Amino acid sequence: MIAHFAVFLGFQLIGEVITRALDLSLPGPVIGMALLTVVLMARPQFGDDIASTANGFLAHLSVLYVPAGVGIAPSMSISSTALVGRSWPRSSYPRCSPSAPEQ
User: Fold this and answer.
1) What are the Cα distances from residue 43, in Å, to 37, 38, 47, 59?
2) Is residue 95 in a domain?
3) pLDDT tens-digit series, residues 69-80
4) Structural domain boundaries enclosing 51
């Protein structure tokens, strides 16, 4: 399993190297996964070898997104300021409750 995990990381590393060497705007992991797809199409036996590790990743995929969500949450106020052009205090958000008095 560790060797198969190293294969996934190796393709990600190759994608990062290609992205930085050619100054591409695509993320390295996307290029790495595209290369892995090409290899899997060329050698289907390779897919059978790494299937158990890939299924393990898929079983715990939601856990892998938690750090990204935690990293994005603090920057939400920065993003809203950049998109809207000004910062909105929380008290001025429109109320969605039907019983709330109109402002």
Assistant:
1) 10, 9, 7, 24
2) no
3) 555 555 555 555
4) 2-84
